[in-house]
Specification:
The chain has about 90 residues and is mainly β. The chain has 2 helices and 6 strands, in the order E-E-E-E-E-H-H-E. The protein has a 4-stranded antiparallel beta sheet, with no helix packed on it. The protein has a two-stranded antiparallel ribbon with strand order 4-5.
């Protein structure tokens, strides 16, 4: 049996961060992917709307992004440097 939770997904130019009840579950450079619950089709961020029912899957970051240099370019601090627009799912 599955349960539904409300996530806050932060989107800048892609899915940046997954937050459930104040706990960060996934953050860049990990790859956060969302799929339409009804069809299993991937969702591109321009198609996201608050209140959508989605499946959220996180994939490990490519190893190059987990190096000191990679994290300095596109790690969690990247979100802090930008004005993010969270959408509640």
């Amino acid at each position: 049996m599955f349960s539904y939770n409300s996530y806050i997904i932060t989107i800048v130019s892609q899915f940046e961060c997954s937050n459930l009840k104040g706990e960060i579950l996934s953050i860049i450079p990990e790859l956060l992917t969302m799929f339409r619950y009804e069809t299993g089709q991937p969702i591109l961020n321009p198609s996201c709307k608050a209140g959508m029912i989605v499946d959220v899957v996180t994939f490990p970051a490519p190893s190059a992004w987990e190096t000191e240099k990679g994290l300095s370019i596109f790690g969690p601090e990247y979100i802090v440097r930008l004005a993010c627009r969270p959408i509640l799912f």
